Amino acid sequence: MIIVLKRGATKEEADEILGKIEAAGLKSLYMPGSERTVLGALGDERVLGKLHLESHPLVEDVKPILEPYKLVGREMHPHDSLVRIGESSIGGDQFLVIAGPCAVESHEQLHETAEAVKAQGASALRGGAFKPRTSPYAFQGLGLEGLQIMRQVADEVGIPAVTEIVEVSDLEAVCQYADALQVGARNMQNFRLLKELGHCDKPVILKRGMAATVKDLLLAAEYIVSEGNDQVVLCERGIRTFETATRNTLDLNAIPFIKQHSHLPVIVDPSHGTGRRDLVAPMARAAAACGADGLMIEVHRDPAQAWSDGEQSLYPAQFEALMRGLQPFVEAAGKKLARPATP
Ligand code: PEP
Ligand code: MN
User: Fold this and answer.
1) CA 324–ligand 1 middle distance (angstroms)
2) Model confidence at 32, in pLDDT bands (50, 70, 90)?
3) How far is it, in rounded angstroms, from Cα 218 to Cα 312?
4) pTM higher than 0.85 for the full model?
């Protein structure tokens, strides 16, 4: 429920009501605003009814939160959230680009790609050390060695590192080496993992499952935020449809829908969304134009030699061209293209 306090209510007065909410076994939220203070109560609404807050002298209104995603929805939190990745912020008017190879293959491969993407304006480096592959015979990632390479390159180049977490038992190691953790499409509803990520102090990039609805994605994010980590970025990466011309169908409808219904930043991954490098730049521009807060793009120094997702990875020169042409589309949506935070 949303509890709107009367104008002029003090923090102490709000605390008294928050105490009652907590004592009833509900989760309470305090959201001071410039006009009014709003409180939230999450949990069994029948319990809240017994508190009769609507007749409390400081309460102006008590109304239900209609959306199922209480914490990531805009009803309780109307303003855009900002999520920090390294020294940069994503969300609000900041459009941020994350780029790098699908997988960490070697120090030289990652270093060369990292230098290139940073020089072209990427604010974060991606690269998987743990790769969830469709086939058990495909390259599964370098594991711990990949994490160590990722950290070393990120420090050498001066760019934050984003890498995928595939299971709870890797959490400590991944948190030790990465600046932001990616949850892949195949793990979007790994609820144990989501809950654990709610207890870690690193931002999480949550990718949409290939057969997940937008509501499923928002409720998956709710798992992380409800456990205490509000640094969550959503990522549209395409869904399975009957269409076979492209690897996935990049659902750009999801972007303005999510922006309306959630305060969390949402980025687009046109690499997995299309599966074809010739379609990445046009869909990246479309994503910026429809209001995405950023992009995640696969770039490899030599895509023909890539150990995974080479066919959708851009050559560094193609990434440079993409970045050069992006600005008008970002500005058309009222945002600014963030520049790498460290020179
Ligand atoms: C990836 O980012 O390389 C990846 C595995 O993506 P997804 O989880 O979206 O398939
Ligand atoms: Mn990939």
Assistant:
1) 25
2) confident
3) 27
4) yes
